[in-house]
Amino acid sequence: MDSVGARTGPDALHTRLTRIARIASDRLQGAASVAMARDALADAGLAKSAAGAASIAVNQAALAAAADASADHPFVAKFRLFEAGRWPLGVYAGIFYVF
User: Fold this and answer.
1) Residue 95: beta bridge partners?
2) Distances (CA, A) of 25 to 10, 21, 49, 80
């Protein structure tokens, strides 16, 4: 397996993942606020929480890509949920909750 980390080294990989996380965070905060406004919701904390969760999904998807993970990797699937406009909240009592 020829992962990005193996090709570029851990420091370069860390720099790339940090940049991805920073850009995602900046863009997603505004996007979350706009999406909530469309639904007549005005809760800055909820918007920040949604943007943070989406930022984590972006970072995890980038990490999966760097590791040359398959398209069915859980990090990639989680990112696809956000990409489709959903917010995967988690699993509780055997039920997967998506907002």
Assistant:
1) 92
2) 22, 6, 11, 17
In this prediction, residue 1 carries a pLDDT of 47
**Three-class SS state of 88:** strand
Tokens of 14: 């860390």
List C-alpha distances in Å: 65 to 5, 9, 29, 70. 10, 15, 23, 8
The model's pLDDT over 65-81, given as tens digits with 9 standing for 90+, comes to 988 999 999 999 999 99
Residues 6+ apart with CB under 8 A from 33: 44, 47
Whether this prediction's pTM lies above 0.85 is answered by no
**pLDDT attached to residue 58:** 94
Pick from 37, 24, 30, 35: which is nearest to 85 by CA?
Answer: 35
